[in-house]
Amino acid sequence: MLDRELKKGSAELLILSLVEARPRHGYEISKLIEARSGGVLRFNVASLYPLLYRLEKRGWIQGRWVEKAGQRRRRYYRLTPAGKKVLASQRGTWRAFVEAINRITGVEHA
Amino acid sequence: MKLAPTREAEIVEELAQHLDDRYAELLAGGATDEEASRAALAELSESQWLARELRRVERQLKHEPVVLGARRTNMLGDLWQDLRYGVRVLRKHPGFTFIAVITLALGIGANTALFSVVHAVLLRPLPFPEAEQLVWLGGWAGNDKEQGVTPADFLDYREQSQSFAQLAASVSEGVPMNLTGNGEPERLKGALVTANYLDVFGVQPALGRTFVAEEGQEGGERVVVLSRALWQRRFGADPAIINRTITLDKRQLTVIGVMPPGFQYPPGVELWQPFSFPASPQNAFRSRELHFLRPVARLKPGVTRAQAQAEVETIARRLQALYPKTNANQSLFLMPLQERLVGNIRLTLLVLLGAVGCVLLIACANVANLLLARAASRQKEVAVRSALGASRGRVVRQLLTESLTLAVLGGVGGVLLARWGVKLLVALSAANLPRTDEIGINASVLGFTLAVALLTGLLFGLVPAWQSARLDLTEALKEGGKGTGSSAQRHRTLSLLVVGEVALALVLLVGAGLLVNSFVRLQQVSPGFDEQHLLTVRIDLPNPYAQPERKALFYEQLQQRVAALPGVEAVGLVTELPLARQSADFSFKIEGRPALPAGQGPHADIRNVNHDYFRAMRIPLRKGRHFTEAEVRDNAKVVLISEVLAQRFFPGEDPLGQRLSLGSLSQGAYEIIGIVGDVRHRGLDGGLVQTIYFPSLRLGYSNLVIRTATDPVSLAAAVRKEVMAIDPNQPVANIKTMEQWVSESVAQPRFRTLLLSVFAAVALLLSVVGIYGVMSYVVTQRTHELGIRMALGAQSRDVVRLVVGQGMKLALMGVVIGLIAAFALTRLMSSLLYGVSATDPATFAAIALLLTSVALVACYLPARRATKVDPMVALRYE
């Protein structure tokens, strides 16, 4: 349960940063999170999509159906200008938070 | 969970997409099919969480209006939601939707078209008030032939019976009449009727009145009632027609009424004229020997047909006792008028309706196959919907709504097809279909179509929907190993559908095969003459040619003029053309033999011909000689007889030189001077009729048969001109080639053979597509297993044998069941067959073989594809 709560707190930041560079679809996002975290973080359908929809409702990301020849259409999410601001501020907060934790736990970075 | 349907569909689509990706990736990573789908579905393991979270997100911005007191579960709202969702899904798979709708439209369209014919012809009562009380009365002499009633008997029945509110009669079922003046002379079918005839039907005239009793008395007959069609065509629908005179058969008649549209009885009649029963006992209308009246009657209210039949038989027995010479064995039988009108087409229509019903069932099976195969790919969608909180019933309802939407689309397409199909049916049936003017797509037919469409939708939708909805999340997760429960079940259902399809197709094919077989035999029957290069023309001489000599003169002149036309080889004249099913049955006596009791002596059809008739028709002379021109002119006391008559009544002796006389037309004895070949007077499927030919031209009507060197049609105009040259007021009718007559005589067998063959072909095609589709699906499902088998050393041959074996097992089961069903069903149509038994082993065997070989091809194609599986791919899977 703690694990889930932790993920939930940081998950918004994860998703916003993943769609910052370019629009991505849901499956791609879940794969990226898994890959870049080295398998430590995993989102399944039940956790990922409600999150995506919530972010969309808040207007931070926007989903659009894109059709590619020979494939089923997919819904791609991109960062909105509002989302960009939120991301910037969340990144700042997160950095500060991580620094604080590091200082407290005494972990030194090379 | 309550969501806007479009939103719900989007979520479902996106989530299903995600699961598909996961599944594909796992497969690519080397997982087995089962592992992959298990893992993919595991993504939904926290479905409670998903539903709760989604609800929380989606609720925030819900715009659904709140209706006070409205319950959350709302059937109508659900239905609307399902409909919109269903339409969306169908639009997303245009290929599937197109094929399903076309298949259904064909099936439903064929059923609608045929039902509209059956409805108008068989089901709807005749367009007369209390039509069920109308009966038709046929004369009957104890054998299997029906005949007319003599005028003297008719009067006795009318006087003595109590069962009928009205008893009326017409001369035959219409007689030819010549209408002149007011433009081109025209030959019409008119009816000579008793004065009460039109009142029997209870139909009010559209204009004027019907006959009164005095007009049925001697001297009062100079009035006429027109059909609406004739009134419009010939008199421009002029309302002032009443009390005007028209010229019919060169006599002046006063028009007193016009019947309403659609009233045409006897069938095809365009006007009605009353006749009387003159006092003179010599008159034909007092005869007790000439069976030319056709009675119709209306039963008194409360009198049943059986009561009336019993009464009629009592009177018949009384007449038999009174007039033993003429009335031995003579009786009457009653039949509902409607049955009389549609009797000969009824079985054909019912067989065809059964056939289109089978086609529709096969179409249903195919669409169900499609849905089942698609259900596999929709498994994840269903899983997501269940995870979103949909109950099983809700999912079934959703999938059924989709099927019904398909069925209704198919129904709409079917009605469009049927509008065109009905026209085609009516055109194909030619003159064989009674009541064609009543055939159309009306409310009852549309109701039938709607019912069929909905039933169809349930039929092909219920099984796939039920099976899809069975998918239980936890069950799907728990199940491992070989084949999930639902896919094994799906296989069983698909197999059953294939067996059923093949069986139905076989029944139809056997039916069609029997009809084709019988039609071919019918075509091979020789009519007894050479029908090529023959033109026929019908000429009816009106009454002013009262003296027989004048008639003979007319025909002689005509015959000479036509014979002189270039390209004419011979000109024959005959009272009734062959194949016309017209009988002129008379009893005769052979001189020197003891007389038999009435009704048991020999009888034969008689024909009056000129000297060149047999040469023009190329009817072979077996023995003796032809008539000479002089014999024809003088009505000499000589006759020619047909071969079958010679064999039957002169076995082992020489008929030439023997003499015979006609009982009722006793004009002395006639010497037999020759024997000619038999001709099919009662149609190609009719038996050989014993015939006596007389030399005579003193005829009220006759048919010219003109043997030509060139295309007979090119002579039609010239012949018409020659007739006009002799008498400008003399109409000609039925200018047709003899080939047309032959072709028309088999129009009804051709109609049913053609239609049933088309339906059987469609059934074959659909069932083959069904087998092919199912086997393709099976091969796809078993690719992995087949690949491993090949990697372990199985040859292509073995794989083909495996797959084809599986398919053929189903096909053969279908064939066996179909054969049993066909064996039971075809005997229902035995009366439609000619020269073939309803259980003809050759037809059964040939059809079974045909279907088996076609099924073999349908199985082989997917099997060959299976051998193309790369064993390496299969190995990588493990």
Short description:
The complex is a heterodimer of chains A (110) and B (878). Chain A is α+β, with helices and mostly antiparallel strands and 110 residues long.
SSE map:
The complex is a heterodimer of chains A (110) and B (878).
Chain A (H helix, E strand, L loop, with lengths): L1 H20 L2 E2 H11 L8 H13 L3 E6 L7 E6 L1 H25 L5
Chain B lengths: L4 H24 L4 H10 L4 H13 L15 H18 L1 H30 L10 E7 L5 E2 L3 H10 L3 E8 L3 E6 L5 E8 L3 H4 L6 E2 L14 E4 L1 H8 L9 E4 L2 E8 L12 E4 L18 E7 L5 H18 L1 H4 L3 E6 H41 L1 H9 L4 H38 L13 H28 L2 H6 L6 H40 L9 E7 L7 H16 L4 E7 L10 E6 L12 E7 L3 H5 L3 E4 L4 H5 L4 E5 H7 L9 E4 L7 E7 L14 E5 L5 E8 L7 H11 L5 E6 H8 L1 H45 L4 H30 L15 H27 L3 H7 L1
Helix pairs in contact in B: 1-2, 1-12, 4-13, 5-11, 5-13, 5-14, 6-9, 11-14, 11-16, 11-23, 13-14, 14-16, 16-23, 16-24, 16-25, 17-21, 23-24, 23-25, 23-26, 24-25
Features:
heterodimer; A: 110 residues; alpha+beta; Arc Repressor Mutant, subunit A; 3-stranded antiparallel beta sheet; 4 helices; 3 strands; 63% helix; globular; B: 878 residues; 6-stranded mixed barrel; elongated
| Helix fraction bin of chain A | 55-70%
Q: Could you list the spans of chain A in which at least 5 consecutive residues all have pLDDT below 50?
A: none
Series of H and E elements of chain A: HEHHEEH
- The shape of chain B, in one word, is elongated
Discrete helix count of chain B: 26
Largest sheet of chain A: 3 strands, antiparallel
- The gross shape of chain A turns out to be globular
- Strand content of chain A is 5-15%
For this structure, what is the CATH homologous superfamily of chain A? Winged helix-like DNA-binding domain superfamily/Winged helix DNA-binding domain
Spans where pLDDT lies below 50 across 5 or more residues of chain B: 61-72, 476-484
Work out the number of β strands of chain A. 3
Radius of gyration of chain A: 15 Å
Q: Structural class of the secondary elements of chain B?
A: alpha+beta
Write down how many β-strands of chain B occur, each being a DSSP E stretch of 2 or more residues: 23
Largest pleated sheet of chain B = 6 strands, mixed, barrel
Can you identify the CATH class of chain A?
A: Mainly Alpha
Structural class of chain A: alpha+beta
CATH topology annotation of chain A: Arc Repressor Mutant, subunit A
The overall number of domains of chain A is: 1
